[in-house]
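To whoever picks this up:

The parser on our side crashed when reading a file containing two proteins. I've narrowed it down to the boundary between the first structure block and the second sequence. Both blocks are reproduced below exactly, byte for byte. First block:
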Amino acid sequence: MNWHEVRNIAIALEEHHPTADNVNLRFTDLRDWILALPDFEGDPNGCNEKILEAIQMAWLDERD
């Protein structure tokens, strides 16, 4: 996975952190959790706030 696979990242986050408060999650924590996903191969410096926000919104949709 890389930063642009927003939906796949959201699914993986839900699998690895099913009880996390994904509404009030700090972007620094979200970035760390994404980098720790076993299939994530993106550049650690390849994201920005816009990408993290898109991932967070996709994760919220995934949980619903």
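<<boundary where parser fails>>
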Amino acid sequence: MPWLETDGDAVILCLHVQPGAKKTGVVGVHGDALKIRLAAPPVDGKANQCLLKFIAQQLGIGKSSVVLISGSTARSKRVRVAEIAAATVRAQLKPAS
């Protein structure tokens, strides 16, 4: 999947985020990125905090394992998730049906 890269014992997620949505959730694929809507506004890093917390909850891991590596002020973001298998990420980050 173009939005998911492996990096040793971690994965890198290429994301397209839409802050200010009614509720937080995975929408689908947007180009080469996984699109995620966030209920938080894009103010004072609230959307980034919401994104990292959402990914950690969806994957069942601690928030400290999820790190924003680029795109802190952009809609296109790259997130590193430590010590997790790519297959687990694919299974857990599916669009809500």
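After patching the parser it read the second block fine. The chain is about 20% helix and 35% strand. The chain has one domain: 4-91.
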